Amino acid sequence: MAEHLTIVDHPLVQHKLTLMRDKGTPTAVFRQTLKEISQLLAYEITRELPMTHKPIDTPMEEMDAPVLAGKKMALVSILRAGNGLLDGVLELIPSARVGFVGLYRDEETLEPVQYYFKVPDALEDRLVIAVDPMLATGNSSAAAVELLKKAGARNIRFMCLLAAPEGVSRMKEAHPDVPIVTAALDRGLNEKGYIMPGLGDAGDRMFGTK
Ligand code: URA
Fold it and tell me: How many Å lie between the centroid of ligand 1 and the Cα of residue 27?
């Protein structure tokens, strides 16, 4: 992808995002809507995937038909909120391999702390799509991408639902080679590191915790 930041301003994405921002939206609707948006974001983030051709027979004649080239892609969920984006994308790309990076944010320093890391093999030969709904300070996203690079990944894209300018700058500085696809770029962060106007804590809203 040529752009570092792509904002998917498609009307369906924006309408669904408004539903998710509304604090009156129940958990089940939030989760379902996140799944729907994840598929629209996945459509955008995979737009320029390399293609090849293979010979097939249609009922009418032979043809050289386009198919995705290369090794199966790897989807990496940044736990726990990343899991909310996983199911939808996997429905669209069922052959994708799946990895998990567990990072939690220290509430005082806002720095990421790793507690889990399990990713598919041969990351260096795969397109790796890291997913996390909220790109806030960018600290945990940058740390997760760093871990993926250490594990061999060379072609990484980052998919989120909401981004803050602070998070986008942090990622651009740490990983200028990693394009970001988001549904919206919000105003900024509050003093606790939450995105404003945002949608609150994505994990809590999708899993019904507090
Ligand atoms: N994580 C969230 O879930 N929400 C925010 O606003 C920022 C980080």
Answer: 16
Alpha helices of the chain — where are they, by DSSP H? 11-21, 27-45, 83-92, 139-150, 165-174, 202-207
Q: What residues act catalytically? A: 105, 109, 201, 204
From 17, 195, 199, 205, the mutation candidate for ligand 1 (largest count of ligand atoms within 8 A of CB) is 195
Q: Tell me whether residue 53 is in a domain.
A: no
- Ligand 1 pocket: which of 161, 201, 206, 207 to mutate (most atoms within 8 A of CB): 201
Q: If you measure from the C-alpha of residue 33 to the centroid of ligand 1, how many angstroms do you get, rounded to a whole number?
A: 17
Distance of CA 67 from the midpoint of ligand 1 (Å) = 37
Domain count, the chain: 1
**Per-residue pLDDT at 145 exceeds 80:** yes
Is the distance from CB of 192 to CB of 18 less than 8 angstroms? Answer: no
- What pLDDT score does 124 carry? 97
pLDDT at 109: 79
Residue 81 sits in a domain whose CATH number is: 3.40.50.2020
pLDDT one-digit tens code per residue, 88-118 = 999 999 999 999 999 887 778 767 889 999 9
Which range marks the domain in which residue 137 is found? Answer: 5-47+70-199
Within a 10 A sphere around the Cβ of 121, how many other Cβ atoms? 11
Residue 5 has pLDDT above 90, yes or no: yes
Q: Is 182 helix (H, G, I), strand (E, B) or coil?
A: strand
